[in-house]
Amino acid sequence: MIGRLRGLLLEISEEEVLVECAGVGYLVRCGVRTLAAMPELGAEIIVHIESQTREDGTRLYGFLSKDERTSFQVLQSVQGVGPKAALSVLDVLTPGQLAQAVAHEDKTSVGRANGVGPKLAARIVAELKGKVLASVDFGPIVHTPAAPAKPSVGGESVAALVGLGIPETQSRLAVEQAMKQLGEEADLAAVIRASLKAMGK
Model pTM? Predict the structure, then answer.
C-alpha cells in the first residue's frame, strides 16, 4: 500500500491533484484545506497517503501532514463516517482543533462540516473521546473560553458564491486561493472578485 508520495505537482482540480513520481502520475483525492495549501504547479511536494482498496479499485487520499492523515484514519473508525465526511471535518477543523473539540465535547464545531449533521457530530465527539489525543501528538490542551464567533470574510465570500449557484467545494477552494493572494485583511468585495476571476466567471 502507498503511504507517501514525493514528486512533481502537475495538476490541481476541484477534488484531487496529480502527482508525478518516477514517471508515473498518481491521482490523489484531497480536502479543500489541503488543495488550498498546495504550492505552484511544477513544484516538488511530499504527500502523506491513505490508500483504500474497494471493489472499483484503489483510491488515494492525500494530506500535507502526518497528523492530518492520522486524524482522517481515526475519524473513519466512527460508525457512519466515511472518507467524504472525514475530509469534510478536516476542511473546517485542523487536527489540533479537532482534538480541542473532542476534549471539550464541542459538537457544534464538528457539526460545521459539510454533510455532518448534529447526530453524527455528537457521535464523533463521543467515540473519539481520548482516541484522537492518543493517536496524534497535538501538544497540550489549553482550556480557555472560546471567543464569540463572528462572520469571517472567507465564510461570507463562500456563502455569496454558493448563492450565485457555484458548488460549495469549488467556492471554498477559490476563496482560499483568493485570500492567500490578497491577504487576510482583504475586504469582502475584493475576495469575491478575485474568486470569480480565478474560476473564469
Answer: 0.66
Percent of the chain with pLDDT over 90: 42
Element (H, E) at 170: helix 168-182
Q: How far is CA 183 from CA 29, 43, 54, 161, 195, in A?
A: 27, 22, 41, 19, 13
The residue behind cell 478536516 is: 90
| pLDDT, tens digit, 9 for 90 and up, residues 79-114 | 999 999 999 999 889 898 898 899 889 999 999 888
- Where does 66-135 sit in CATH, by number? 1.10.150.20
CATH topology of 4-63 equal to that of 66-135? no
22 DSSP assignment:
T
Decide if 53 contacts 22 (C-beta within 8 A). Answer: no
User: Alpha-carbon Rg of the chain, whole angstroms?
Assistant: 17
How, if at all, do strands 16-21 and 57-63 pair? unpaired
**Do 45 and 7 meet the contact criterion of CB atoms below 8 Å apart?**
yes
The residue assigned the cell 466512527 is: 78
**Structural class in CATH, domain 153-198:** mainly alpha
Sign of CA dihedral 43, 44, 46, 49: positive
Residue 51 DSSP symbol: E
Decide: residue 88, CB within 10 A, 0-12 exposed, 13-18 middle, 19+ buried.
buried
Type of residue numbered 136: V
